[in-house]
Design brief:
By secondary structure, this protein is mainly α. It has two helices and no strands. The termini are far apart.
Length: 107
Amino acid sequence: MYPQRELRHLAFHKAALHRRIGRRRAECAAAATGVAQPLAWLDRALTFWRRLSPFTKFAAVPLGFLLKRTLSPRLKLLGSLVKWAPLVLSAVRGLRTATPSSRVGPR
């Protein structure tokens, strides 16, 4: 059916193709390992976070105050605004609803 020389030629190409496929598989496996390393780190970090989650809820408020004190000691004005803003806003809202002159337009 096929001449012997053509069969050897096809066998050579088949072997070369198998070698090339093997090299490409190894390269893909190495690339996948490189891509998966950050994902593995993220998975470990999420697992660690879920394990610590109940404890961090209790520690978040004191740590926030400590972080504020250490990182921004000069931002006392901003702290005062954040502290008193809800009271001022509720007082302004109460005054606006109490006075009829604050409404614009017909009733």
